[in-house]
Amino acid sequence: xxxxxxxxxxxxxxxxxxxxxxxxxxxxxxxxxxxxxxxxxxxxxxxxxxxxxxxxxxxxxxxxxxxxxxxxxxxxxxxxxxxxxxxxxxxxxxxxxxxxxxxxxxxxxxxxxxxxxxxxxxxxxxxxxxxxxxxxxxxxxxxxxxxxxxxxxxxxxxxxxxxxxxxxxxxxxxxxxxxxxxxxxxxxxxxxxxxxxxxxxxxxxxxxxxxxxxxxxxxxxxxxxxxxxxxxxxxxxxxxxxxxxxxxxxxxxxxxxxxxxxxxxxxxxxxxxxxxxxxxxxxxxxxxxxxxxxxxxxxxxxxxxxxxxxxxxxxxxxxxxxxxxxxxxxxxxxxxxxxxxxxxxxxxxxxxxxxxxxxxxxxxxxxxxxxxxxxxxxxxxxxxxxxxx
Length: 389
Ligand SMILES: [Zn+2]
Fold this sequence. Notes:
With 389 residues, the chain is of the alpha/beta class. It is built from twelve helices and 16 strands. Zinc ion (ZN) binds at residues 244, 254, 256, 258, 261, 263. Residues 244, 254, 256, 258, 261, 263 line the site of zinc ion.
């Protein structure tokens, strides 16, 4: 059905255009908003008055406008008008962030969890952590506007159902309805890499980039793809499972049931296994990272071996999608340059887009907060997206 242009629809649409302009490009004067949107000064004035009275926008001060000597008042988005909560559910941890509405972190809580494989227990712990974050939220006109959650697995984002998370061993968990009932707030969920891609595009290294891919290297490998500014979900909402592309049909068995998936060669577990093979002893990822930083040959080779396989997978993504930017999120911290350098070299060797339209490959900017900030950004996206067309 085509939406007709009734008055309230147009008003809400214009309001969201002005508000989002101030969120991403403010502070701006009323005259500048009129120039950039093409809306009349009267319309801008009425929208701005409303936004100021609702505390979404505040007047910042004066700036000389060119030529005529008059001074214009600058308007800026007020991120303290409310707060939002972003959650990352990991395989062995839960991270909860309290943020303002510009996605600036107010408080981080993390706890390790041994029983994520028991959904009821994990949901209970997550709910307690979120309630405590809500209690810590500063007083504000809107209060906490919602909770976003990033999940390492297949998610039906529309229904809020975790369809299948092999590393958590969750199937068909109705997480959104469970949590909404316990918290009394809107809850949004998505795959962790989709959330990460959104977070990086809105608030991280992907600002202003229309075609980008975010890969998260953890227990598994997640991929969030944004093309023409749209997160690609596919027909059933499960697009982006490139961690399960087959690298070797007779390779080791993957958590998904197939053999030789990219994930079995390039995830954190692959790094730990490779290090054990080379050094004869098993160490944790943080120990291997530390060793690699101090020049240890086995630790360096373990990280580079995983990165080289990752590069092979990413070269296929680059050939297939031609993104401007690939962002990699990992937990190897200061040793992440080893991953970036090796991936970069492998992709340059193997992709067609070089030298015509080279893809930049770099670390995610939001680091180990990418997923949780991304999950919060999904709530912000819903809150500020304006009326549906
Ligand atoms: Zn697999």
